[in-house]
Design a protein that fits this description.
Helices cover about 40% and strands about 20% of the residues. By secondary structure, the protein is an alpha+beta fold. The chain folds into three domains: about 5-305, 3-Layer(aba) Sandwich (Rossmann fold), CATH 3.40.50; about 350-470, Isoleucyl-tRNA Synthetase, Domain 1; about 530-630, OB fold (Dihydrolipoamide Acetyltransferase, E2P) (Beta Barrel), CATH 2.40.50.140. β10 and β11 form a beta hairpin. Residues about 505-525 have low confidence and may be disordered. The structure holds 5'-O-[(L-methionyl)-sulphamoyl]adenosine. 5'-O-[(L-methionyl)-sulphamoyl]adenosine binds near residues 20, 24, 229, 288 and 295.
Length: about 625
């Protein structure tokens, strides 16, 4: 068994946590859960970084002592992590004695090894970054480039750490370990920075009182970044070299936002080198979540309505959206309309309906999960794909490609939907075909068992719901196809992703798409003549390609094949279907509709769909040749 130690940054508790903090923590949670699933011994650390100037100021503004303020805010992080189903092993606070003693010991070691000296520092300082900015990084206004807040001039006698001494060793380490920093773009930035030369850093503050005293000079407190970074070891029991510390240090992965990669990939390793301690194996810096293109900021009041979206869509939809929609190393703009679209298309439609449909057929036709006695067409393909999905998932998770990892699972989900469709399983209830029906349903449930295990690191609540409905008591492994015991009683429960009322959503998303809507069940009163109806040229077509239209959340640009010609059609279905899932689908097209230009995109026809609160594409019961007329 291998050990796996993953950490998030410790967050400043100057106010309650925001979606950016949640993003980092959810990503770390996926890794922790995935490694537990693989049978590894995992330690997952998160916590709060309490000795910040920001915290001190926030406390003062509320008339509280910094400690009382931290005692009030720290639990709000724990509460959010509970709500988000975060499976951390340690929630660490830097005001704990364990941390204070550990941080002081670490400082002593650096001092004893000769890498700490006294000198004078002056410069512009950002209280939110807890960092100095050099003249060349500044504009005339002396504003923090990250927080856009005025910088403060600081001047004092400090202790310094000889960071410059480690420049060559750091360069060598980055070159010898190409995977040390992920993604490569961050690694290259750091290499450039390193090559331009490192300066020693001040590691004490004489002007501040909120912090951990220097062990050998109590007039000073330890600079927050120095003590904060050491939390990754002190939380494990570095001070006493506890068993936990010996088991888990060095960390496998430190996850963080790109803003603090430099502290983790240069300063932290240099300090560890100075203390003759092993370095963390990987520094993984993800992009920033933005809102309308702007960085989230507690200080500037730019935030994501995480609470509202979780209430509307559930925790798993929120986790799924963050992990599926954005490429982990890049920035991603949070858009509630996209969350809504993912919910409908991937979760409710692809996965929820599949479970519901298969369980419905089992319930109707069998007393329990049937024994697979009668192999047939497509079975081997499905079984093979289950195995390749497991392998591909592993490869994607190992490079933090959570979006591709989920897409890989969903390719399998969609394949099983197609399997059900291709085999027309619902038509096989006659006595002579019932054994084949049972086999197809068994395979579909076995695939759903695989899926439930594979999604469990990402959307654990859903994984559990699926297993419960299939009748499995425990989480099972996916190492072997066919382990689903026949004879289990399934219990088709409530839909795992119930329909969400989108009216509220529409109010907050002003973009309008002209989509005449007929409410389900409403009677049509205006009659048309048969001659008028005949004017419509309805044809069977196949979708060849689908892509989003920039600036139009509800629209997709489709390329369709009508047998005799290919066309481009704009369809208002982006909230309900994923581009990738559409390719290959047969649809019905109004082929003689006047061409129109919608959002600067030409549209030559219209795709038919059932259109109520949900939108479902109209299609024929079985496939027919392209171009066939629909009457
Ligand atoms: N306390 C330091 C970290 C010390 S670690 C030894 C700190 N704290 S913080 O509260 O400012 O939050 C840090 C982390 O929150 C970022 O690195 C990132 O992981 C996450 N995020 C903060 N804003 C974010 C976004 N807008 N988007 C994504 N993540 C963001 O820095």
């Amino acid at each position: 068994m291998r050990t796996f130690y993953v950490t998030t940054p410790i967050y400043y508790p100057n106010s309650e946590p925001h979606a950016g903090n949640a993003y980092t923590t959810i990503a770390a949670d996926v890794l922790a859960r995935y490694h537990r699933l693989k049978g590894n011994e995992v330690c997952f650390l998160t916590g709060v970084d309490e000795h910040a100037a920001n915290v001190y100021n926030a406390a003062k503004a509320e008339g509280l002592s910094p400690q009382a303020y931290c005692d009030k805010i720290a639990p709000t992080f724990v509460k959010l992590w509970e709500r988000l189903n975060i499976s951390h092993d340690i929630f660490f606070r830097t005001t704990s004695d364990l941390h204070k003693r550990g941080a002081q010991k670490f400082l002593n070691v650096l001092y004893d090894n000769g890498d700490v000296y006294k000198g004078k520092y002056e410069g512009y300082y950002c209280l939110s970054c807890e960092d100095f900015f050099s003249e060349k990084e500044l504009t005339d206004e002396k504003i923090c480039p990250v927080h856009k807040l005025p910088l403060q001039w600081l001047e004092e006698e400090n202790y310094f750490f000889r960071l410059s001494k480690y420049q060559d060793r750091l360069l060598a380490h980055l070159h010898e370990h190409p995977d040390f920093v992920y993604p490569t773009a961050r690694r290259n930035e750091l290499l450039n920075f390193l090559e331009s030369g490192l300066q020693d850093v001040s590691i004490s503050r004489a002007s501040l009182s909120w912090g951990i005293p220097f062990p050998f000079d109590p007039e000073h407190i330890i600079y927050i970044w120095i003590e904060a970074l050491s939390n990754y070891m002190t939380a494990l029991g570095y001070e006493t070299e506890s068993e936990q510390y010996q088991t888990f240090w060095p960390a496998d992965v430190h996850i963080m936002g790109k803003d603090i990669a430099r502290f983790h990939a240069l300063l932290w390793p240099a300090m560890l080198m100075a203390a003759n301690l092993p370095l963390p194996k990987q520094i993984v810096a993800h992009g920033w979540l933005t809102k309308d293109g702007e960085a989230l900021s507690k200080t500037r009041g730019i935030f994501i309505d995480m609470d509202g979206d979780i209430t509307t869509y559930g925790v798993d939809a929120f986790r799924y959206y963050l992990l599926r929609e954005f490429s982990f190393g890049n920035d991603g703009d949070y858009r509630p309309a996209r969350l809504h679209a993912r919910y409908n298309a991937d979760l409710a439609n692809d996965l929820g309906n599949l479970l519901n449909r298969v369980l419905g057929l089992v319930n109707k036709n069998f007393a329990a999960i049937p024994v697979p006695t009668t192999p047939g067409e497509f079975d081997d393909e499905v079984k093979e794909m289950a195995q390749t999905t497991v392998d591909k998932l592993d490869a994607h998770i190992n490079v933090f490609a959570f979006d591709t990892a989920l897409e890989t699972i969903w390719e399998f989900v969609r394949r099983i939907n197609r399997y059900v469709q291709q085999t027309q399983v619902w038509t096989l209830a006659k006595p002579e075909t019932k054994p084949r029906m049972g086999t197809i349903l068994y395979n579909s449930l076995e695939a759903l068992r695989f899926i439930s295990v594979l999604i469990s690191p990402f959307i654990p609540e859903t994984a559990e719901k699926i297993q419960k409905q299939i009748g499995l008591a425990d989480f099972d492994t996916v190492s072997e196809w066919g382990r689903l015991p026949a004879g289990l009683t399934v219990s088709r429960g409530e839909p795992i992703f119930p329909r969400v009322d989108i009216k509220k959503q529409k109010q907050s998303e002003p973009e309008k798409v002209a989509r005449p809507k007929q409410k389900a069940g409403k009677k049509t009163t205006d009659l048309v003549s048969f001659a008028d109806f005949q004017k419509l040229d309805l044809r069977v077509a196949r979708i060849l390609a689908a892509e989003p239209i920039e600036g139009a959340d509800r629209l997709l640009k489709l390329q369709v094949d009508l047998g005799t010609e290919k066309r481009q059609v704009v369809a208002g279905i982006a909230e309900h279907y994923n581009s990738e899932a559409l390719v290959g689908k047969q649809v019905i097209i109004v082929a003689n509709l006047e061409p129109a230009t919608i959002r600067n995109v030409e549209s030559h026809g219209m795709v038919l769909a059932g259109s109520g609160d949900a939108v479902v594409l109209a299609t024929l019961e079985t496939e027919m040749p392209l171009g066939t007329q629909v009457k």
